[in-house]
Amino acid sequence: MNQKEFMQVVAPFQNKLFRLAKRLLVSKEEAEDATQEIMVKLWNKNKNLGAYTNVEAFAMTMTKNYCLDQLKSKRVVNSGSLTIDYQDQSINLENQIEDQNTLKWVEQCIEELTIAQRTIIQLREVEELEFSEIAKIVEMNETAVRVALSRARKTLKNKIEQIQNHGIKN
After folding, report:
1. In the chain, is it the N or the C terminus that has fewer CB atoms within a 10 Å radius of its CB?
2. 74: which residues sit within 8 A by CB, 6+ positions away?
């Protein structure tokens, strides 16, 4: 596979790889490095990529594993935030501030989830992958993925409600 063919296969999901790396590593720079490293690994395997039925799932799994290895080896300090572009000119300033605060709370609550829950939230809610794809990437069965997602959502809901109702963050 030449470089042009390789990019045609990989380019459509390159941003997903970055977002997953960003979710796990938190640091933008670490996520960029991880994405670049995965792209190099994919390039090195480009002759065998045709053997994979789902190159995207394979790449996402590689990204997850690489990031987890980085977290284990470097003990990366989580100091980043969600990368969601939220701009709506029609909302008045008060609502914008309230929305920004809510987004900040959600980001903080997501960062407090386990790595597995953060990964599943990212893959399902942001990347909109199917449960079968997520199960392959996180190496769990579909039922376990659904349960983990349900628990993560419930945890987020409870924490956000507590913050909104009481202004308290545990």
Report:
1. C
2. none
- Which has the closest alpha carbon to 140: 153, 165, 123? 123
- Map out the domains of the chain with their CATH numbers: 3-74 (1.10.1740.10), 93-166 (1.10.10.10)
* Backbone phi, psi, residue 125, to 5°: -85, -35
* Residues of the chain falling short of pLDDT 70: 1, 50, 74-96, 99, 167-170
- C-alpha 128/C-alpha 56 separation (Å) is 13
Q: What's the CA angle centered on 112, arms 100 and 156, to 5 degrees?
A: 65
pTM, two decimals, is: 0.54
Residues 6+ apart with CB under 8 A from 170: 159, 162
Tell me the DSSP string of 59-109: HHHHHHHHHHHHHHHH--------------TTS-HHHHHHHHHHHHHHHHH
CA distance 129 to 116: 15
In angstroms, the CA 137 to CA 20 distance is 11
